[in-house]
Sequence to fold (729 residues):
Amino acid sequence: MGNKGLDKAISGEYALGFEIDIETETVPPGLNESTIAFISKKKEEPSWMLDLRLKALKKWESMTEPHWAKLDYEPIDYQAISYYAAPKESLESLDEVDPKILEAYNKLGISLEEQKQLAGVKVAVDAVVDSVSVTTTYSEELKKHGVIFCSISEAIRDYPELIKKYMFSVVPMSDNYFAALNAAVFTDGTFVYIPKGVRCPMELSTYFRINAINTGQFERTLIVADEGSYVSYNEGCSAPTRDEHQLHAAVVELIILKDAEIKYSTIQNWFPGDENGKGGIYNFVTKRAICKGDNAKVSWTQVETGSAITWKYPSCILKGDNSVGEFYSVAVTTLAQQADTGTKMIHIGKNTSSTIISKGISAMKGQNTYRGLVKMNKSAVGARNYSECDSLLIGSQCGAHTFPYLESKDTKGQIEHEATTSKISDEQLFYLRQRGISEEDAVSMIVHGFCKEVFSKLPMEYAVEAKALLELTLEGSVG
Amino acid sequence: MSSIMKIENLQAKIGDKEILKGLNLELEPGKVHAIMGPNGAGKSTLSKAIVGHYDVDVTDGNIIYKNQIINDIAPEKRALEGIFLSFQHPVEIPGVNNAYFLRTALNAKRKHEGKEELDAAAFLRLMKEYLTLLDMKSDMISRSLNVGFSGGEKKRNEILQMMLLEPEVIILDEIDSGLDIDALRAVSEGINKMKDGKRSFLVITHYSRILDYIKPDYIHVLKEGKIIKTAGPELVAQLEEHGYDGIEEE
Ligand SMILES: Nc1ncnc2c1ncn2[C@@H]1O[C@H](COP(=O)(O)OP(=O)(O)OP(=O)(O)O)[C@@H](O)[C@H]1O
Ligand SMILES: [Mg+2]
Fold:
């Protein structure tokens, strides 16, 4: 009698794999200057933006795809991807969202109708389907507080000064191969500006949905928190179940000025593919924050359960004195998923401090790599870092790997690193089952215990969602 | 008298090794059965077979509980139906809060019996009572399950679970090993408190001391994969004096 239930318990099912039945306008596959001109025209962009995009394309063409990560995937044919897809707008109601999209978002648990939101918890949403933002809720109400919350395409048209000042200031277009690609072809994403001294009155969020076939998703998000302001921003995503891989290459830039704070949370649930590695999203993302002013604070919290391939290192440049960077991560790889994720903490200012809590969970054939850099410049007198990287293995075919890098230029900085690897053993599961707890519940009990430290950093509504998602990912068809 | 559990001609292997070689045993309701026997005789294997542990491969014979053959019933089902094993070596589970675990187990049981789940306040009241009785520090339940517990603390935590889940067949595999005098008394009191004339106990031990406290009705000697002798409590003294060598299969 073997413990066969274990495989069943972790053969997570993807619940969001439906397709929204809408007409889509797409550009034919291929990447060249005319594709970019097409995108720029669609977005009604000023010519300076088009020039920047074309410059980025040149850069990208001179670069090569990086392969230092511990990821093994089929080569990406960049000319076989369509770089623009958008739901066709119904003619009679330009201002209104296609009811099918509303319905799809409802199915994803997100209301795009302001008046239908639960009383008490207001969450403003930017809804992005493929290459366009279909609607942004509460924009008007936020405007009263001076908060700008709109799609990046709109921001390029309406707030060119802010865009020119801040876009590419944290992640330059030539930063890396995927960032350059994004700079050339980015289609939509969210722009947020919180003015001086304003505490954003509601949670802001963007929900990305890849829907069209054979297209890539290349969004760009830019958040600026002016002096003494605060915002909590959340992103979520999903995609239909398809046999082909789809590329997602996003860029997120956060700018935090003096005494300001951004709390950035992600629940990443792109389609993971199947247990043989067929299908699933290739997720290559560059996320970086700069604490520009003194006492600025940023925290990245991520729960990564989706994607076939994840390449992602949300980072913090701690420039202002006393600034604080935090990274809290739960990354789950099951089926044949591979994740190479972590963070970079660059200490420049005095008395800067950073915290890294990374929890990797691997099941089935999943491969999970933590890769993190803590760098302390000479100027970072009194800097402190605490890192903790824990791995949990479920079953014997999966793997966990940890690569912490340290660079300390003889500052008197204080760096503490802890790492553990544990395994859910058959003996542990049996113990719980002998007490009447089902195998599925036993697995999720151990997993929740393992990640509760990170979940506690998510805003309440999202913590509940993340918990449920994890259960679904790891437990398959329970009950 | 009809039995609550009956084990008939049980043969079981671990890996390729035959451990139980035609074992027969009947547990009577309301009685305390003690099993004694040399190291490696198969006592823990028997307890694992009863609860459906994956290590043990039952090749022949039957385990009958409440008139039903349970050889192929899932472990959690056996547990919910009232079979409890206090493990010889309880496993540590990092990250799982002990109180949360205890409450989940209790509520799984209550749900199975069609009862309402116990709320946090009622649960804590119950806990307090048991912790006092077992002379356990209250921080034991806010720690990770068994993690860093001393040997004696682990055993007390097993007894705590037993009291909470109120099982009908209670198997205690060397509950007395590694306990100091006070712990042995506390644990024995816990066990005695559970005696209600209906549930039955299978107590595996090497020592007479715990038996002085919990007063067994029967002593079974397990040797080389079989029960070779069954007698009343007077057998203990004889075993203490002469060991197992003199005992022949009846
Ligand atoms: N997982 C295992 N793999 C191989 N052999 C095992 C395993 N578990 C038990 N055995 C063997 O089975 C035999 C019976 O073991 P068991 O644990 O049932 O003995 P026991 O009577 O409980 O002994 P003790 O009094 O020392 O606890 C021993 O020879 C032991 O080595
Ligand atoms: Mg034993």
